[in-house]
Structures are given as structure tokens and as C-alpha cells.
Amino acid sequence: MRTQTDRLGPPPAITLETAARLHLGFIDPNGSLGRAFGSVGLSIEGHGTRITARRSQQQTPRIDGNITDDQRMRIAHHIAQLQNAFAIDQHIDIEVHDAPRAHTGLGSGTQLALAIGAAFVHIAGIEANTADIARILGRGARSGIGIHGFDHGGLIVDGGRNTASNDTSSMPPLLARQTFPDDWRVLLIDDTSRQGLHGDEERCGLASLAPFPAHLAAHLSHLVLMRILPAVAEHDFAIFADAISDMQQTIGEYFAPVQGGVFASPAVARALDAVAAEQQAGIGQTSWGPVGFAFVASAQRALAAAQRVSGNASLSFSIAVARNRGASWRAADDRRHRDANAA
């Protein structure tokens, strides 16, 4: 998403919406051929982030919405980062209308940061792209799925980071983007009693892992190039589901010592196994979880899968479709902001 000053001037208020993402797996966490990580992911509807940003005269931003104290602090910090990076005394207030539960594997931190950044540069009339914003806000340290998904949506493959480069600010390059079939569905299962690894625990966990075997990286590369991408291009659900399950099992076993198993939540694992026992499904966990997913071939099959596994009080279920477009924004009414300042 590239933004620049409009001929009529930047809007005083905008509403911006961006999708959640599923991180379907790393390709080579060890960088055995000189590129670390590399990722496969998918943008999905229904669990996105929607904010309204308004130009303000107050130095301290007003941040409203159903968000945690940690999210509120992050938003204020992101605004300060943007002001410093662009050397501009632009103040904005933020209202968060929708945001996924944090640290569940849906990429909420990156999407909220990019939404704040895109809103800021729109209102300030600054020309900047999503990669610029991500660098300023420190996003994309390992995976570029959230950043490329913000721009394009769909199924994304990124190329990870060049391990020989000292440039830690470069974004993982976009290698492939495909439109995901409209009729396929994703059953999402969230263990609401848990959060996925994040922050210092995530960094320490990654550092404690043994090197990722080169033969497994080769296997995952083969899966992505010769099974997952062709299956999506040809709408071959059987091959896609089998390949995703294979990739998830491989990478899940590698991360098991850190997260306590192939899945972070035993309850989610049991529910996904039950789905796979009843119908063909591509099952796995997005990022560190606890959200697990089951790709199924149709809306009817998704409903059947949800009915099969519902009943656990700690689990929540939802059915999602892919989002084959990037973030969107529109000018918003800033009347509420003016009225509040007048009061």
C-alpha cells in the first residue's frame, strides 16, 4: 500500500481495515542455504483489524476501543516512532473498532502496527509504502507474510532473510502470491485459555532450538514449490490439504520442544484430529498458536467439521474464507473528534 498526498489534501480522518493472517509454516528456520526462515501464509476474512484515525491538536493521543493496556501502549509507541521517523509534529487519535485476541497466531500485532502506520501517513500526507512503515515500526523480523498480506492478500510465499547481509531492516522478499479458491473454507479453533509464545519467551525459545536439518528444509521447499502452489493454482484441494498437513507436522515437530508438542494446545490438537478423522482436511497451527486450523473443501464441510468438534468450553470456533485483497481505507467523518475537542 503506497500512500501519498491527495490533490485535495490529506483527509482529517480515515477508517482502515486489514485482514488477519494464518502463518502456515517456515521453510528453513536455520538458513542452511543462506536464507533464514522463508514463510507461507494466507490472509483471511473475519478476524481483521479495523481502526479510525483522526487528526488531533493534542500531543497525547486519545486511544479508544476494546483493547488491552499493552495494545494501548503499543499504539502510543507506534505513533511516537512515526513522528520521530518522519520528523513531523503530526498528532492523531485512534479508535480501535475490531482487533483479534493478541498472541493467538493471527498476526494481530503486525496488522495493528501497519494499520496505525498507514493511517498516520495518509493523514499527514506523507508518501510511504508498507515496507517503509514496517521498517520504522520494527515489523517483519522473521516473516514477511503479514506485510505482504497487508498489501496484496491471498496466499503468500516470502523468501526469508539473507543470512550473509548485515541489513536487518530489509523485508523478506515476496516470491509468490496466488488468489486462493473462494469455495475452500478454514475452520479456526482457538483455545481461549492460552496465548502463544511472544516477546522474550519467543526469542529465547528460538535460540534454544537445534539447527533445522537441511534435508527437512529441502522437503519443505519441495512441498511449497511442487505441491502447495500448484494445488492452489489448479484448485486441487486433495493435494493442498495433504501438503499443508505434511508441512505443519514437519515444522511442528521441530518447534515441539519449545511449545510443548506439535500443537501448543492439546485441546486444539484433539479437535483437529477429530476433524481429520471424519473428512479430508489440511490441519495445523498458525504461528505459535494456540489457534489451529483445518482447511476443508466447502462451506458445508466446514459446518459439519464445526459441529463435530464443538462442545469444549475453552475452545471457540469460527469459519473463515480467504481474503484475496489487501488492506482498504476510506475517508471517515471527523465530527466526533471535533465535538470532543469542543467539549
Q: Which architecture name of the largest domain does CATH use?
A: 2-Layer Sandwich
Report on the biggest sheet. 8 strands, mixed
Number of domains: 2
Number of H/I helices? 10
Note down, in words, how this protein is organized.
The C terminus is likely disordered. The radius of gyration is 20 Å and the shape is globular. It is 40% helix and 25% strand. The chain has two domains: 200 residues, Ribosomal Protein S5, domain 2 (2-Layer Sandwich); 141 residues, GHMP kinase, C-terminal domain (Alpha-Beta Plaits, 2-Layer Sandwich), CATH 3.30.70.890. The strands form two sheets. Strands 1, 2, 3, 4, 5, 6, 7 and 12 form an eight-stranded mixed sheet that branches. The protein has a four-stranded antiparallel sheet with strand order 9-10-8-11. The longest helix is centred in the last third of the chain and has 23 residues. Strand 3, helix 1 and strand 4 form a beta-alpha-beta unit. The two termini are 36 Å apart. Helix 1 crosses helix 2 and helix 6 runs antiparallel to helix 7. With 343 residues, the chain is an alpha+beta fold.
Quick overview of this protein structure:
With 343 residues, this protein is α+β, with helices and mostly antiparallel strands. It has 2 domains: 1-179 and 323-343, Ribosomal Protein S5, domain 2 (2-Layer Sandwich); 181-321, 2-Layer Sandwich (Alpha-Beta Plaits).
Task: Give the key terms.
12 strands, kinase activity, Beta-ribofuranosylaminobenzene 5'-phosphate synthase, kinase, alpha+beta, 2 domains, 8-stranded mixed beta sheet, 25% strand, Ribosomal Protein S5, domain 2, transferase, 4-stranded antiparallel beta sheet, 343 residues, Alpha-Beta Plaits, globular, 10 helices
